[in-house]
Amino acid sequence: MTASDAQHAVDDGTSAPLRKIVHVDMDAFYASVEQRDNPEFRGKPVVVAWKGKRSVVCAASYEARWFGVRSAMPAVTAERMCPNAIFIPPDFTRYKAFSRAVREIFQRHTDLIEPLSLDEAYLDVTENKMQLATATRVAKMIREQIREELNLTASAGVAPNKFLAKIASDWKKPNGLFVIQPHEIQSFLLPLPVGRIPGVGQVTESRMKAVGIATVGDLYALELSTLEHHFGSYGLRLYQLARGIDRNPVVPNRVSKSISAEDTFPEDIPLADTEPKIRLLAEKVWKSSHANARAAKTVVLKLKTKEFNSLTRSLTLLAPPSSCDELTGIALALRERVEMGPKQLFRLVGVGLSNFQTAEDPASPLFVEELAERGYEQTGFQ
């Protein structure tokens, strides 16, 4: 895309019709379900995690968050920060049942629902089934129905697009509602630190600060060409977001972009000892992909070091692996491309498939190995 094409894309975004988007985010969902079903846990710090030095936190109640406990934190760290925390092993079957109940409430208002996880979703309520006058009224009713029917709380953000609605839902957590009207977009956005932009992690934020970008207002002040110089193709996205532009629609029934399985070892082990686990995980991923009748052309190997540094190796093929043995062989071959020395120990390994093929997909060219630093504890490779 040329600079003129990019500018045209920006102009199209500003002239596009405004949507009414609601982002609903359940408050400390897993922990709140546990407190709901166990009255003795209410008002107390609850941590959803298996106890042990190899476990990580799945969720923490707001009482536990007050002590600094956060999701994806090592359980031993959470226990040290909050010695009185109540640790509860996760019960995903129960959480999924509540997630389905929340989804049923959403469906009373719109069919345009894009789940992001068990506890959050985008809703396009530009037209709503209840014929309520505003998106704000829709969000209020949804939150009331969740509270009255499920005895749980949810926070919601209302805005003209997904990007702004996502920020808004976090603005008055927990149990809050925040609305960004179209005429308020710039006055709301410009003072925000760039870290509030969804997708801007610590690495990107550090790169921004290195070139003098601390707030969204700093982003807004820069030319598109400058942002593309520093951040490549992502520069256009940043240019648009600084102006409150996000043309991405709510996509219902989004197909998962990957299938993966991972496991944490009881003790840190050298890379050479990971083969048995890689074989087991590859078999699990193979069965899962074929249960869904889907074929993928990219094989991914994920590793996490003893120091919690994550890395991946991936290879995209001309055609999907034809057997579990082939998938396993590729995953093991990717392991050979990890050059960290024999003394390096690893705490986690994962195998995944992505780049799923449809009937219309042409064969893709052979791809090269890629290395990406990522920090996912729970969600695989997506």
From TrEMBL:
Note on how the cofactor is bound: Binds 2 magnesium ions per subunit.
Main location: cytoplasm
Catalytic reaction annotation: DNA(n) + a 2'-deoxyribonucleoside 5'-triphosphate = DNA(n+1) + diphosphate
PROSITE patterns membership: UMUC (PS50173)
Subcellular compartments: Cytoplasm
EC number of this enzyme: 2.7.7.7
Residues covered by the UmuC domain: 21-201
Site (Substrate discrimination) location in chain: 30
Gene3D superfamilies per record: 3.30.70.270, 3.40.1170.60, 5' to 3' exonuclease, C-terminal subdomain (1.10.150.20), DNA polymerase, Y-family, little finger domain (3.30.1490.100)
Cellular compartments per GO CC: cytosol
List of residues binding Mg(2+): 25, 119
GO MF annotation: an example: magnesium ion binding
Enzyme class: transferase
Catalytic residue list: 120
Similarity field: Belongs to the DNA polymerase type-Y family.
Oligomeric and partner information: Monomer.
Protein name: DNA polymerase IV
UniProt source species: Tunturiibacter empetritectus
Source species taxonomy: Bacteria, Pseudomonadati, Acidobacteriota, Terriglobia, Terriglobales
Gene name of this polypeptide: dinB
